[in-house]
Amino acid sequence: MLGLLATTTAFAAAPRTVPTKGMVTVVDLGAKTCIPCRMMTPILAELEKEYRGRAAVVFLDVREDGASAKRFGIRAIPTQIFFDKNGREVARHEGFMEKKAMADQLNRLLAK
């Protein structure tokens, strides 16, 4: 498994499985040592619990896996990328992202 945040691994994933096939996915690309990334940890954990079974919430640590940063064209961390259920990127945000904004985006994708 890649991308461990603190002691929570429920939303860590191997980069080749992102986005999750057939499921709305948000991937947060960051690093365990990045302060804004660490601020995202409780938000991602809450979203993972709230959307379990409906949407995948994934964290990838780009310092541990530089290939993910390259694959997704990351210029700043944290970066959140939202994918529809067909695996198509539909939105991207750089920097800290509030839980409500992330939930709103997930809800829009789930409503389609």
Overview of the molecule:
The chain has about 110 residues and is of the alpha+beta class. The chain is built from three helices and four strands; from the N terminus they run E-H-E-H-E-E-H. The protein has helices at about 35-50, 65-70, 100-110, and strands at about 25-30, 55-60, 80-85, 90-95. Strands 2-1-3-4 form a four-stranded mixed sheet, with helices on both faces. Strand 3 (about 80-85) and strand 4 (about 90-95) form a beta hairpin. It is globular. The model is unreliable at about 1-10 (pLDDT under 50).
Q: Provide the number of structural domains.
A: 1
Per the CATH scheme, the topology name is Glutaredoxin
Order of neighbouring strands in the sheet with most strands: 2-1-3-4
What is the number of helical segments per DSSP (H or I, 4+ residues)?
3
Low-confidence stretches: 1-10
CATH class wording: Alpha Beta
Q: Beta-strand percentage?
A: 15-25%
Judging from the principal axes of the Cα atoms, what is the shape?
globular
CATH superfamily: Glutaredoxin
